[in-house]
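Hello,

I think I submitted the flavin mononucleotide job twice by accident. Can you confirm which output corresponds to this input? Input:
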Amino acid sequence: MDVLQAIKGRRSYRSFLDRPVEDEKLQAILDAGRWAPSVMNLQPWQFWVIKNPDVIANLKAASQETLQTIFQASGWKWVSKFSLEFMSEAPIIIVVAGDPQKTGADQFLPGRGQGYAYSCCAAVQNMHLAAHALGLGTLWFTLYETEKVKEIIQLPPELDVVSMIILGYPSNPDASMKRKDLEEIVKNVD
Ligand SMILES: Cc1cc2nc3c(=O)[nH]c(=O)nc-3n(C[C@H](O)[C@H](O)[C@H](O)COP(=O)(O)O)c2cc1C
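Support: Only one job matched these inputs. Its output is below.
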């Protein structure tokens, strides 16, 4: 699949088939993550692959609590209705962990020091695109509390949880989300 086709065709999925992901596809997705650009090529990431249904159930239960916390703080009704069923439907969750110590020269600039997280996000997007190109579906998922996730998967304390990728064969047809027009977001500096 052409890269521009992959970029435009990828969508977020929140419903998955009861179908395992082939190991060679998983390896290809992780490999795509590895080739992302990173600050000073520090590659400040680890990809924690979770297939164990008990661990996934624990992550889901923790996120259910997190939704309550977000709802209490925001009052947003959609949060109280947000279903996490996709977490138990999808056969794999990849936790992308980043090392805040590996953040490059930006740590010496005021208000910066997020290079590690930006790098991890580049890896996350590579993995989303690779999964799409291989006929799989993904969700970029962030409704979790870092400390809870760290405890459940026993992540080393110095690492940060940058994102979760929910991965599987999608069951719902593509619901295309619109994008703003280029005219609205491109500003030319003369
Ligand atoms: C940083 C980031 C965090 C996100 N977190 C969540 C999330 O926690 N739950 C969710 O359902 N979608 C999440 N998304 C997916 C967005 O909702 C989705 O990308 C957006 O609505 C556009 O839809 P599309 O991906 O299908 O084009 C996240 C996306 C990004 C980039």
